[in-house]
Amino acid sequence: MHFLYSFCGIFLFFNTYLSVFSQCISSFPHTQDFQSSDGSWTPNAAGSWVWGNVTKPVINSSGSLCWTNNSLTTGYPANAQVHVTSPCYDFSSLTNPHLSCRVWWETERGWDGVNLQYSTNGGATWTRLGNFGDPVNCLNANWYNANSITWLDVPVANSSGWSGNITPITGSCTNGFGSGGWVLAQKCLPLALAGQPNVIFRFHLGAGSTCQDDGFAFDDFTIQESPIVPDFTYICIGANTLDFTGLANPCATAWSWNFGDPASGASNTSTLQNPSHIFTSGGTFTVTLTATNPCGRSAVIAQVIDVDNCTTLPVDLLGLKAQLAGTSVHLSWQKPSEINAVKHFYIQRSTDEVHFETIATTYSSETYYRDTPPQHSATIFYRLIKVDNDGTYQYSKAAQVRLSEKLPARVFPNPVHQGEPIRLEALAPESYVSVYDMQGRKCMEVISSQNYLEIPTHTFVKGLYWIRIQNGDTPQTLKIQVN
Ligand SMILES: [Ca+2]
Ligand SMILES: [Ca+2]
Questions:
Q1: What is the pLDDT of residues 163-191, one digit of tens each?
Q2: Suppose 166 and one of 98, 178, 250, 315 were both cysteines; which one would form an S-S bond, judging by CB atoms 3.0 to 4.6 Å apart?
Q3: What is the pLDDT of residue 311?
């Protein structure tokens, strides 16, 4: 009897140990999709939050089980202040924790809303996770869309959170800015949470006395060590000179290179994403890139690079020229002397002379290409890559062309007196100019051979006219008044 009693005591102690220390989720990444259970989340009062398939007027989880406030089919009541609390997470093994979940909000804009809070003392005190206006990047997104929600976190109130609705306005209720569907909200967690053995979260919904909507739902609540996988590529651009391109999945906010070339002194390191390095000799070097994600977590990749294959390039390979012609750029180059050795050329374009994209492949018999560049940059750079049949390749020097020469055409005087010429300026050469009256009849047309044009008006009756200037793909229309 005495023996059995001791056994029970040990067993009870063991059970208590489990409930205090082992029920916190400690294996990451951890995703709770709520498909097989409520995930041990706890409403502050029975029915204040519910778990299941949501079929409210706006929020509809389409069969995916999740959590929502108050009811699976209707919205929140007046003066709701309700929350639902997660099970505990043990962050002992995490250095830069990250949280993501799918959220759907539908609350009266600016008055009612929801935010997420955390506690490391078992719920004695709570801290709001993040603020409206926090930086947005690959690991921080859709985190609050309102900075002052009147009835959220009462009595503090005016708190950051998610707020807004897609429901049409009724009466004096405010609307707009509802998520209108699931949105992936994600956030780097504060570094102070790393190593904490007991972290809990809660979603809190607060509402005023009038104008209620569906509220909020969340699903796929995920905690993980914040991800960062660096990588890099490189190309030879000159004697012992490589252009490096830093890559990181999902993204990086800081880069740190070591080219393994201490003889190069201070230039052995760089904090650019895409640096160049001139190696002090041929041979092999171990290049390392350390990339840091927005949550502050770093990872390193190293590659051994053989610089011997990177040799001097001709400084003026093929004499590449780029000339602006209207909205197009005409590229021309010389035919290489060893033409039979050439497989093809890549034509590349850049807006910064650093990052080039291939826009065409052309064959060795061709020495001409016409490009229509995007109009968002004042200067465009082009280069050729000559690829030989044996797989070797060379880069040309970049040729540049200034697009800012193509400013919008101007007209003056305007209004113009009948009989006085209209002068168009800043025309692209070979612009097609036509004039229409208010009835849409074409009054004249001409192709301008210069960057200006004078149009006589003695045959124009008084009234409004439209001047249409066409060159390339983007016509410009100007309105003039003849008095
Ligand atoms: Ca689910
Ligand atoms: Ca309200």
A1: 999 998 788 999 999 999 999 999 999 99
A2: 178
A3: 62
Q: What is the CA(63)–ligand 2 centre distance, in A?
A: 28
Query: What's the CA gap between 153 and 399, in Å, rounded?
Result: 60
* Cβ neighbour number for residue 9 with a 10 Å cutoff: 10
In this prediction, residue 27 carries a pLDDT of: 97
Kindly give the distance from the C-alpha atom of residue 191 to the centroid of ligand 1, in angstroms, as a whole number.
28
Q: What is the mean pLDDT of residues 222-236?
A: 93
Tell me the sheet residues that pair with 331: 322, 369
For the chain, what is the largest distance between any 2 Cα atoms, rounded to a whole number of angstroms? 123
Question: Which listed CATH number (2.60.120.560, 2.60.40.1470, 3.40.190.150, 2.60.120.200) goes with 22-225?
Answer: 2.60.120.200
Cα–Cα distance for residue pair 58/215, rounded to 1 Å: 9
pLDDT of residue 316: 57
Compute the distance from residue 33 Cα to the ligand 1 centre, in Å: 4
Report pTM.
0.64
Assess whether pLDDT exceeds 90 at residue 135.
yes
Q: Which backbone phi and psi does 10 adopt, to 5 degrees?
A: -60, -45
Beta bridge partner(s), residue 298? 292
On whether the 229-309 domain is CATH 2.40.320.10, my answer is: no
Same CATH topology for 317-404 and 410-482? yes
Whether the predicted pLDDT of 15 surpasses 80:
no
Proximal ligand: closest to the CA of 175: 2
